[in-house]
Amino acid sequence: MQFDDQEIQAINSVVGLFSPNTELAVAKFVAGDCNYYGARHGRKGVEQVNNRTSVFEIGSLTKLFTCAVLAQMVCEKKLSLNDAINEHLAIDIRDNAEISFESLATHTSGLPRLPPGLLWQAMFKRKNNPYAAYLESDLLTHLAHDIKLNTKRTHNYSNLGMGLLGYVLAKMDGMNYGQLLQKRIFEPLNMHRSFCNWRDVHGELVMGLSKSGEPTNNWDLGVLQGAGAVLSTVQDLGQFAAAQFDGMLSWTQCQQQLMYEKRFTKMALGWYVLDSSNKTDTVYFHDGGTGGYSSVMLLDLQNKSGYIILSNISGLHKLKGQKITKLGFDLMRKLKGI
Fold first, then answer.
1. pLDDT digits (tens, 9 = 90+) for 26-43
2. Helix, strand, or coil here: 211?
3. 8-state DSSP, 268
4. 294 Cβ partners below 8 Å, 6+ apart?
5. Separation of alpha carbons 135 and 194, rounded Å
6. pLDDT tens, 99-114?
7. Contact status, residue 334 vs residue 100, Cβ threshold 8 Å
8. Reduced to 3 states, what is the DSSP secondary structure of residue 250?
9. Could you tell me if 39 and 49 are in contact, meaning their C-beta atoms sit under 8 angstroms apart?
């Protein structure tokens, strides 16, 4: 089903709110069929563009790929979700605490959102590329000596935790994180314009914009690549969504199983699972943001419908959540007739 006038107007209205050179690429799924629409804020206003193969940073949508690899390894019986990651680390975690694979995938490990000192780096020292200098030695030192886990182990969104998960999975497969995704996700799903390093991008890399609308640096994620390093296109992400819809791959079934539920938070492996008020509809959701980009993915797996939105609107922009994530939910509600 093509984009209708209301959808196009909604997308164009969001693009027009931001500075010139702002760009959105959108994939729409209806009954498994995919269509694309792109819009850019040009010199003469908002114009339609064909950007389905243009590359954007996808930020925390990367976490879905990290958890997809985890699900694959579970299906291959290389690990159990309840296993502790400790034996795969070269250090002992402070207080001999144990961290399970499942807890990292559901943000219930007790780890903080960010490593010690990284918020200061982001605000003052490396605000244009805050994770770049956070290396393996920093991660292991912090785990061994500095980080005390929250013993309540409640849901607490953690870039540190998901980055740690990606690091451990790559170590287990004897390769780096970029190689891990190429081998296990990108190549099998024919995602030929997906990367873990902006320097490797071939094709059109859309320029990221700061929260003031100026060109900004691409991000390097250091040792925490599993939390947000991927660059991709809506067409490539559509391949990942199609695999999730299809359900024929054992790892997609594993990734979609509900793993955590408490009050208003429900999680599968990496996915947030959202129910409608009458409990008749379920949507799998994640969004993402970096210094120059923001993204959202919403999938109704039962009806094989949903949206993927990539943009070069800064994840640090005060309107990112109000406009990009909200646009995804608005489009989804309209598609469902809610």
1. 999 999 999 999 999 998
2. coil
3. S
4. 59, 287, 288, 311, 313, 314, 315, 317, 320, 324, 325
5. 23
6. 999 999 999 999 999 9
7. no
8. helix
9. yes
